[in-house]
């Protein structure tokens, strides 16, 4: 969940970070303050650095107030995400010239032929989430099932492109008028009493 921000901040284990692990969480907060945010002076970080103290949650709560975090201490994932966002902003502010002209790694290697390539070519069709998503869309749009999920996804794409054009939406939204039916003249087949 936080992997991209952690990678941007050069965290030592961006893929394996678990904010639910208390010790790892506390160490992470200390690292974030020491290395990236640096809101407190070095001598004022003692309470936050003492991760084994019973008073650490109080110190952390005070820290959250001092950096103006809008979340409560119980909302751990939101808090971590907010702190990471703050750290990324501060890191960028410190090194704006370094990041100003940088481009993503994928953009450096891409050429025009890759941009025009089939967009579905890089999908992992064996991923269970991909299969479940395609099946859910196919069921929702009433598209016949197929053994190849890519074929079903292409059918979904064609259906969406045809039915969601401006003309198709305008045509579908027009009110359809028909002949009025007089219900008194029809036999219902039962008596309502």
From TrEMBL:
Protein name per UniProt: RNA transcription, translation and transport factor protein
InterPro entries registered for this protein in UniProt: RTRAF (IPR019265)
Similarity remark: Belongs to the RTRAF family.
Organism: Loxia leucoptera (White-winged crossbill)
Coiled-coil annotated spans: none
Protein's gene: Rtraf
């Amino acid at each position: 969940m936080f992997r991209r921000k952690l990678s941007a901040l050069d965290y030592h284990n961006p893929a394996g970070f678990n904010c639910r692990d208390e010790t790892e969480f506390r160490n992470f907060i200390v690292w974030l303050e020491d290395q990236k945010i640096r809101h407190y002076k070095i001598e004022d970080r003692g309470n936050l650095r003492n991760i084994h103290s019973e008073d650490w949650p109080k110190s952390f709560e005070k820290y959250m107030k001092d950096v103006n975090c809008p979340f409560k201490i119980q909302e751990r994932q939101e808090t971590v995400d907010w702190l990471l966002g703050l750290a990324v902003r501060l890191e960028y502010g410190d090194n704006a010239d370094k990041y100003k002209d940088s481009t993503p790694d994928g953009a450096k290697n891409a050429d025009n032929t890759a941009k025009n390539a089939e967009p579905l070519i890089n999908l992992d069709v064996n991923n269970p989430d991909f299969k479940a998503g395609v099946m859910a869309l196919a069921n929702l749009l009433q598209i016949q099932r197929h053994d190849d999920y890519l074929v079903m996804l292409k059918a979904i794409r064609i259906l969406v492109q045809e039915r969601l054009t401006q003309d198709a939406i305008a045509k579908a939204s027009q009110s359809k008028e028909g002949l009025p039916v007089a219900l008194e003249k029809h036999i219902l087949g039962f008596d309502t009493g």
